Amino acid sequence: MHKTDRYNEIMATLRHQGSLTIAELTGLLKVSDETVRRDVKVLQSRGLLERVHGAVLLAEHGT
User: How far apart are CA 43 and CA 31, in angstroms?
Assistant: First the structure.
């Protein structure tokens, strides 16, 4: 799966569920923890999500 597709999948799932753990994202995307962490870092830098210990949340303005 291309990184843009992963970003879209992460955001779509967050919009639906509100929060996800890193483990849930790893299973959903079928990639390594490190890949998920890199993707989350990019999305966080864009202000789309917030990182908390072991999980990610949809940023208030990321809807």
Answer: 16
Q: What is the pLDDT of residues 4-56, one digit of tens each?
A: 999 999 999 999 999 999 999 999 999 999 999 999 999 999 999 999 988 99
Residue pair 27/35 in contact (Cβ under 8 Å)? The answer is no
The pTM of this model reads 0.88
Instruction: Determine the Cα–Cα distance for residues 50 and 31; give it in Å rounded to an integer.
Output: 20
In this structure, the number of other CB atoms found within 10 A of the CB of residue 55 comes to 16
Distance between CA atoms of 34 and 40, rounded to whole angstroms?
Answer: 10
Token pair for 11? 């955001």
